[in-house]
Amino acid sequence: MKRIFFLTWTIIVIISTSGLSQSMNMGVKVGLNDATAGGAGASSQSITAFNAGVFTTLDIAGLLALQPELLYTMKGYKVNYAVLDEIGPIPVGSGIVTGKISYLEIPVLLKLHTSSFGIVRPNIFAGPEVAFKLSSKAISGSPSSEQNLQNINSTDFGIIVGTGININLSITTLMVDI
Fold this sequence. Notes:
Number of helices: 0
Largest sheet: 8 strands, antiparallel, barrel
Structural class: mainly beta
Order of helices and strands: EEEEEEEEEE
Strand content: over 45%
Distance between the termini: 29 Å
Number of strands: 10
Shape: elongated
Radius of gyration: 20 Å
């Protein structure tokens, strides 16, 4: 595979607990990734994978906050491929390759909060991220066919853009981000 395109959307549920002051919150983050891959002559299927980590939200001003995060993220893909005859381009079979890649991601998000509507406070966020590959494997058929992927960069950079809501409960804040 020459290129892997990840279409990642994450729905994240965050449980936030109060930090040392009202201007700092810390919490745990869990979510899902949905990724696909493509390439010449391949049809891909999406695969759902897991992510989890920790974050800290630091209030900068009334409506602005900075949110650095440390996440373990798994991404992957399934690609259907045709096995061609050695003599000519005649398909003689097919198979599925499943790729599994794990990263340590470090996003730094800038959050813009709007006014509260009762216990609900919407926000939008954006920011850069850097990801360090921890492992990358491809499996075609049985686990004994597992091999390391050689063409995956060890470092990845990206931009995160999303929206969310904070639900202020009496003992904690529940945050849902897309």
